[in-house]
Amino acid sequence: MNYFPWLTIIVVLPISAGSFIFFLPHKGNKVIRWYTICICILELLLTTYAFSYHFELDDPLIQLAEDYKWIDFFDFYWRLGLDGLSIGPILLTGFITTLATLAAWPITRDSRLFHFLMLAMYSGQIGLFSSRDLLLFFIMWELELIPVYLLLSMWGGKKRLYSATKFILYTAGSSIFLLIGVLGIGIYGSNEPTLNFEISANQSYPVTLEILFYIGFLIAFAVKSPIVPLHTWLPDTHGEAHYSTCMLLAGILLKMGAYGLVRINMELLIHAHSIFSPWLIIVGTMQIIYAALTSPGQRNLKKRIAYSSVSHMGFIIIGISSITDMGLNGAILQIISHGFIGAVLFFLAGTSYDRIRLVYLSEMGGMAVTIPKIFTMFSILSMASLALPGMSGFVAELIVFFGIITSQKYLLMPKILITFVMAIGMILTPIYSLSMLRQMFYGYKLFNAPNSYFFDSGPRELFVSISILLPVIGIGIYPDFVLSLSVDKVESILSNYFCK
């Protein structure tokens, strides 16, 4: 038993160290940038060390567990712990946040507040992925909202206030359902509120009540994931946010919703998940097709990438709903894979915007000649997005395919139909990805412009792009690297479905 509070330190370090940013000397932004990046790197090293030396991969039980009484008055505990489901998203959070702070280098206006908000988000995200208490989960879920709202409304584009308001209305509105579900589960069936994940997982509820809980949680997670039709905040938010904020949104924030679906809806509400999973599969397949068809119609580059994110999240929903080892492992792999690919595409879109100051694809063209390094990286990572074999997206989507085909829960004809529709979605993906590349980089528009010389990608931007490209190729070639983290936990979750 390891008694050192690794997880508390990992959760509290970014926000507490970040609060010292306001006391740094007023000597430009360089000190603030380096201080923030040092905190992120220290946090990432601490996390990696704790997981390497104190986490047993083949143990599906909770590890590095911490349980402290926090508020005596209503028996509230600070409960943290890790299992195979949370370790991948936590490492992804550390990696993407570190690179996003590096991507935020050009920001000079109110940079103290900007970097503090990024570190506050960092704490909230890691706290959510490692919390073992329902109320603590809700608090960490809410901790995200204000930093994202401020990052959007202060450093966004022309319509930033509209998109920030839309974001807060959707996410704060859906959080009410999450809170009702948390309190309902905590209060049900006992004199004292029990918010412990382990106790709640062994609790049985009347079917009607379980369905009501499930719908409440599903609404909250559907907004964050996002699941169609609760997705409309996402393209607006991505279209206006600074690209470093987009990296955090696409890389981590959307994954919180998918993680919640597995952690609460699937693990705690087994009977309701069995009832709802066929409907979720239909929603997931519709989402893949709908977003893939909507994406080519987007004139704004970042909105087009945002719709591609919505399409890829459909595979995660299908994997979670297949109730198979393959499907759930594929969904977890897709969470990690899309975290990398989504983040880097927004980063590259932002670096292109820094140079040409254009967001509409119809105004672009001929950029391959003027910025060849960005063109090369954009092309390679667009291929990763369209699930090219050898890249992480291909493996994740292929495993989800096998998951739905091998599922015992569904009849043969529905499985063939779902697989066929998913395949159409995978065919549509290259259409919007390649047309985006063609509109941006080929042709003659900017090449013939009078002042058509732009600086190409610098060392910092190349470093961020290559740092994400390497794990994308690594996971594509050797997916066991990620799957080995979750495989035992997935088995233990699914064993409940076949026992009960």
UniProtKB/TrEMBL annotation:
Q: Which GO terms describe its cellular component?
A: chloroplast thylakoid membrane
Recorded GO molecular functions are: NADH dehydrogenase (ubiquinone) activity; NADH dehydrogenase activity; oxidoreductase activity, acting on NAD(P)H, quinone or similar compound as acceptor; ubiquinone binding
Chief location category: membrane
> What EC identifiers does the entry list?
7.1.1.-
Q: Where in the cell is it found?
A: Cellular thylakoid membrane; Plastid, Chloroplast thylakoid membrane
**Has UniProt tagged this entry with the keyword Isomerase?**
no
Q: Where are the transmembrane segments?
A: 6-24, 31-51, 85-105, 112-129, 135-155, 167-191, 211-234, 241-262, 268-293, 305-324, 330-351, 417-442, 462-483
Q: Which GO terms describe its biological process?
A: ATP synthesis coupled electron transport; electron transport coupled proton transport
Q: What class of enzyme is it?
A: translocase
Membrane topology is: Multi-pass membrane protein
The chemistry this enzyme catalyses reads: a plastoquinone + NADH + (n+1) H(+)(in) = a plastoquinol + NAD(+) + n H(+)(out); a plastoquinone + NADPH + (n+1) H(+)(in) = a plastoquinol + NADP(+) + n H(+)(out)
Read off the Pfam families from this record: Proton_antipo_M (PF00361)
Using the record's annotation, list all stretches that form the NADH:quinone oxidoreductase/Mrp antiporter transmembrane domain. 131-415
| The keyword GTP-binding is annotated on this UniProt entry | no
> Keywords, A to Z?
Chloroplast, Membrane, NAD, NADP, Plastid, Plastoquinone, Quinone, Thylakoid, Translocase, Transmembrane, Transmembrane helix
* Family affiliation: Belongs to the complex I subunit 4 family.
Q: What function is annotated for this protein?
A: NDH-1 shuttles electrons from NAD(P)H, via FMN and iron-sulfur (Fe-S) centers, to quinones in the respiratory chain. The immediate electron acceptor for the enzyme in this species is believed to be plastoquinone. Couples the redox reaction to proton translocation (for every two electrons transferred, four hydrogen ions are translocated across the cytoplasmic membrane), and thus conserves the redox energy in a proton gradient.
Question: Which PANTHER family does the record cross-reference, listed alphabetically?
Answer: NAD(P)H-QUINONE OXIDOREDUCTASE CHAIN 4, CHLOROPLASTIC, NADH-UBIQUINONE OXIDOREDUCTASE CHAIN 4
> What NCBIfam families does this protein map onto?
NDH_I_M (TIGR01972)
State the name under which the record lists this protein: NAD(P)H-quinone oxidoreductase chain 4
Q: Which organism is it from?
A: Francoa sonchifolia
